[in-house]
């Protein structure tokens, strides 16, 4: 029955012997002493030796000075700890206490986790040792859901009773309540009128306690992919682990789904009489519902006779709207009422059947029912509704991300359309054709989805939870429904929930039809018959015109008689203004004044209600070029997502409210996924006349633009992700503002007031399936216990090297663009950047600076490292570098204040290599150098390919930008390991978990989280 309740939690798929999680249910872990500055507890000699052994091994290793900082854990002898001393260095100088990484002692020793026989100074780690050492260390794994979906999870199994550790994250919270529309994942609610600005909460008004809505019984069980809660990583321009892992299986990749294989009937295997009967009913109701593909536009043009094939009647508009309103009110009662209610409390099963199959659908034939003896059952109604909505390409498919963006165009924009994939009424001369037919068709889709949703909810509550004898649900019923439903039907249910939550629906009988509209005159005019006196109707056209009082008259009633009034206008407006403030929009004051004067405050005014119930017309100016083709709407380009902004202001209108994009955002008719970022920026642009005049009406929501000496970049553009680490950048919900304006490579002039499309290549990746499809491998590759022996000598404590006293100074110089074959981009409409060059200068002491340039070729991503908390420890330590580098050293002195190690231990099976920032220009390797080797490669090379590269980018924002540009030039994704948030060992393990080659260690002085996870300890910031 899991399909009714959504995905269930499951156990990690990691092997029992390698994930470090106790399998015995009786061995539940008690609360650890993991809060900051917890009083030290008395430990035995065994515990003391475990900690001392970690420090001894690391201190002895640091005495080997090497110019190239490289370390292979697996090649360190197990008996090396015998030569260590237990005495800590008294001076605590950087050179003495520095845990410099080095080359292996025994180069012939290459096998991971393979050590010599355990010496007397090594100890097999007990359960208590493991719990103590790895307290606060994140475990990475996959949770398997329905339909072969996998959900990345981060857990702290040794701290399950410590909320301060369980609440560690790699993402920022959503800064405004309106932004929760972007996700279907469970999350803490954002209080009303509360925003997060510059990482600090701002209370606009005093908080108030309000009653939340109850959950519906039926759980659709799907989520947006990638996870939008994880889109806002704690580092600028970065995403969280969940978002990154789900990118290869995103909705844009997964949909449209492959049609399900059908059990076709072999005509040769059935009697001739049955063949003739089958052919005789070919044009009957639901005749093509078994998987046949349609063309939505052609289906609309073919009219009611074609709609009958998928079971849909020519529905009376007033009946449709009133039923939608009834179902909407019922759902609100279900969610907000005092007692549990279902549709069966209002209408009987037979009444539901009668209303559905006499007003909206044709009754299905008996062979289509699961049980012909229960023709009026709720199950037969669910099956008929599901089959109708699942008709391929007959409806708007909201499983496609592009339709989630363009849904508002169906509701509010009148043709001709400058973009999108909508029907042109001039191409059809049938009597039922009407300019609002597509709006009407969407309303029918919403009605059928609402009927299905409330029946499913009643089925779960009455048939399963209440064990009703009148409504019995069997395993076969569940299996039958699973075979019928598809991603398209699931998303219909998601959209109709948002539709009913967003609008107050009513029928306006006094609303006139399209002014002066005549179906025959309209189609004739579109064919060029402008002079009606010279082009009189033919006899048949007149006869057809007089017969519209029949079934076609239902289709020609204006769908604008359905009034949709938004219910969350004020909250959506505040969310838009917060977005404008967070991205530093220069025209925000004018934007606020214009929208607030139009919308007002308090109750919905009549002018706004009318603005939402009148079509908007959008005609592109001549200089904007031809309308965008439908291929642009359905493109899968990683660098281009064009959309036409509203630029035809109706001066006669009482309210200037932009176009369908603005109406979509302000109404809250926004669906889960990346579309929220597109709608926010597009709404800002089309309501700023100055920006619209300078930039033009065609926006590229996957690119960036320069405007008035500043640039704004979509987070989908690699240029924005690299520039995000510079000082004085701003970021909010998928858009980044930067002070860097690109220059033309030929003229060296700034390319201001222009859009940019930046061409990129896919980043390098391991061969085979995406990481999220590799099941147990995430947990297996990143377990803190490693894959070798679990003895004290197999672990070491990797730390960051101390900062140089006089490091080389890295300065960002310029960002230059050039077109195809190096052509200039000046005065080019919609410029396509073929070559993106980022130039830096490096200076050292009195030496003259030299310049380094990186070409941003690859569409790489940056991932925020997940927070960890180092384990409690009785050995005190202090920071060797007071600037917050995070480098700590053991001390023989005791202190009652410090009770934490500077990081988590790392097993010798994890290979990593340090690279200095200044040496990055020399590390240009072939594209496949880091990929997994084939079975014919030698074992040593296999280990090198598994190395994680640690790039020391501490020392300033521009050093981090330098490292990011290097990653984009080579095609390496990178994990941003901020010092003080994540220890080096956990960064290395997470990089292995998500199959990322590079870890960028950056300064820990910037707190990207509005909620400090712990108190600050000396020498360790935010750990």
TrEMBL record:
Residues 1-121, 514-535 are annotated as: Disordered. It comes from the Eukaryota. Residues 44-61, 104-115 have a biased composition (Basic and acidic residues). Residues 1-10 have a biased composition (Basic residues). Residues 76-100 have a biased composition (Polar residues). This is Uncharacterized protein.
């Amino acid at each position: 029955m899991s399909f009714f309740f959504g995905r269930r939690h499951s156990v990690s798929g990691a092997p029992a012997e390698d994930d470090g999680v106790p399998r015995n249910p009786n061995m539940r872990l008690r609360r650890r002493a993991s809060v900051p500055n917890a009083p030290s507890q008395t430990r035995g000699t065994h515990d003391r030796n475990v900690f001392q052994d970690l420090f001894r091994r690391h201190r002895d290793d640091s005495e080997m000075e090497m110019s190239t900082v490289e370390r292979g854990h697996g090649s360190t002898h197990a008996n090396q700890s015998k030569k260590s001393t237990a005495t800590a260095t008294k001076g605590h100088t950087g050179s003495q206490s520095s845990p410099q990484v080095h080359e292996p002692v025994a180069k012939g020793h290459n096998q991971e986790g393979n050590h010599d026989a355990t010496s007397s100074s090594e100890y097999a780690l007990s359960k208590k040792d493991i719990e103590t050492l790895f307290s606060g260390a994140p475990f990475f794994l996959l949770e398997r859901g329905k339909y072969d979906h996998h959900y990345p999870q981060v857990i702290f199994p040794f701290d399950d009773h410590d909320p301060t550790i369980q609440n560690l994250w790699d993402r920022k919270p959503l800064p405004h309540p309106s932004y929760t529309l972007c996700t279907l994942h469970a999350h803490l609610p954002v209080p009303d009128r509360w925003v997060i600005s510059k990482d600090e909460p701002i209370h606009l008004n005093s908080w108030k306690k309000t009653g939340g809505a109850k959950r519906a019984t039926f759980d659709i069980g799907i989520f947006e992919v990638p996870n939008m809660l994880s889109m806002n990583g704690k580092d600028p321009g970065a995403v969280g682990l969940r978002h990154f892992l789900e990118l290869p299986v995103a909705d844009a990749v997964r949909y449209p789904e492959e049609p399900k294989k059908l059990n076709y009937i072999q005509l040769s295997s059935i009697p001739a009489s049955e063949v003739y009967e089958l052919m005789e009913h070919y044009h009957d109701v639901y005749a093509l519902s078994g998987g046949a593909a349609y063309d939505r536009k052609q289906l609309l043009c073919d009219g009611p006779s074609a709609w009958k094939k998928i079971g849909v009647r020519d529905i009376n508009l007033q009946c449709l709207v009133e039923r939608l309103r009834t179902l909407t009110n019922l759902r609100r009662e279900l969610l907000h009422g005092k007692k549990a209610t279902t549709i069966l409390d209002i209408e009987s099963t037979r009444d539901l059947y009668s209303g559905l199959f006499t007003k909206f659908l044709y009754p299905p034939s008996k062979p289509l029912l699961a049980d012909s003896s229960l023709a009026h059952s709720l199950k037969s109604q669910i099956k008929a509704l599901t089959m109708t909505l699942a008709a391929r390409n007959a409806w708007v498919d909201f499983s496609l991300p592009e339709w989630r963006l363009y849904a508002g165009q169906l509701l509010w924009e009148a043709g001709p359309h400058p973009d999108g994939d909508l029907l042109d009424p001039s191409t059809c001369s049938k009597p039922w054709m009407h300019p609002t037919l597509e709006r009407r068709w969407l309303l029918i889709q919403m009605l059928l989805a609402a009927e299905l949703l409330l029946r499913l909810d009643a089925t779960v509550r009455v048939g399963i939870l209440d064990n009703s004898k009148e409504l019995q649900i069997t395993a076969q019923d569940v299996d039958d429904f699973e075979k019928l439903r598809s991603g398209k039907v699931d998303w219909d249910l998601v959209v109709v929930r948002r539709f009913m939550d967003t609008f107050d629906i009513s029928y306006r009988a006094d609303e006139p039809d399209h002014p002066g509209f005549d179906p025959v005159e309209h189609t004739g005019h579109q064919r060029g018959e402008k002079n009606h006196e010279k082009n009189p109707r033919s006899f048949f056209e007149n006869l057809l015109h007089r017969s519209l009082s029949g079934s076609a008259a239902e289709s020609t009633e204006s769908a604008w008689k359905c009034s949709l009034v938004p219910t969350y206008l004020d909250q959506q407006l505040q969310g838009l203004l917060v977005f404008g403030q967070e991205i530093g929009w220069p025209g925000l004051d004018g934007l606020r004044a214009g929208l607030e004067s139009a919308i007002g405050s308090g109750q919905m005014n009549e002018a706004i209600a009318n603005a939402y119930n009148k079509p908007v017309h959008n005609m592109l100016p001549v200089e904007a070029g031809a309308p965008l083709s439908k291929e642009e709407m359905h493109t899968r380009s990683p660098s281009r997502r064009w959309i036409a902004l509203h630029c035809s202001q109706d001066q006669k209108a009482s309210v200037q409210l932009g176009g369908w994009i603005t109406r979509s955002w302000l109404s809250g008719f926004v669906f889960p996924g990346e579309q929220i970022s597109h709608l926010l920026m597009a709404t800002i642009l089309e309501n700023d006349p100055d920006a619209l005049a300078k930039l033009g009406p065609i926006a590229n929501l996957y690119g960036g633009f320069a405007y008035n000496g500043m640039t704004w970049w979509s987070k989908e553009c690699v240029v924005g992700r690299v520039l995000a680490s510079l000082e004085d950048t701003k970021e909010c919900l998928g858009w980044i503002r930067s002070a860097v304006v690109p220059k033309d490579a030929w003229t060296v002039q700034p390319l201001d007031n222009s859009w940019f499309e930046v061409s990129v290549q896919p980043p390098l990746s391991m061969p085979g399936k995406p990481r999220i499809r590799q099941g147990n491998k995430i947990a297996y590759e990143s377990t803190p216990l490693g894959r070798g022996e679990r003895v004290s000598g197999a672990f070491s404590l990797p730390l960051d090297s101390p900062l140089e006293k006089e490091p080389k100074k890295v300065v960002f110089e310029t960002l230059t663009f050039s077109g195809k074959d190096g052509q200039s981009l000046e005065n080019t409409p919609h410029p396509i950047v073929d070559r993106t060059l980022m130039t830096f200068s490096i200076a050292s002491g009195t030496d003259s600076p030299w310049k380094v340039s990186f070409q941003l070729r690859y569409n790489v991503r940056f991932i925020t490292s997940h927070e960890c908390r180092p384990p409690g420890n009785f050995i005190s330590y202090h920071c060797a570098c007071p600037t917050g580098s995070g480098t700590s050293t053991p001390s023989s002195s005791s202190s009652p204040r410090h009770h934490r190690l500077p990081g988590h231990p790392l097993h010798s099976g994890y290979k990593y290599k340090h690279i200095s920032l200044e040496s990055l220009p020399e590390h240009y390797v072939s594209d496949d150098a880091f990929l997994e080797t084939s079975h014919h490669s030698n074992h040593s090379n296999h280990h090198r390919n598994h190395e994680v590269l640690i790039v020391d980018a501490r020392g300033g924002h521009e050093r981090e930008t330098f490292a990011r540009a290097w990653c984009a030039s080579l095609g390496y994704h990178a994990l941003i390991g901020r010092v003080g948030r994540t220890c080096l060992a956990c960064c290395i393990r997470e990089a292995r978990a998500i199959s990322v080659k590079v870890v960028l260690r950056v300064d820990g002085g910037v707190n990207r989280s509005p909620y400090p996870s712990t108190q600050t300890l000396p020498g360790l910031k935010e750990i």
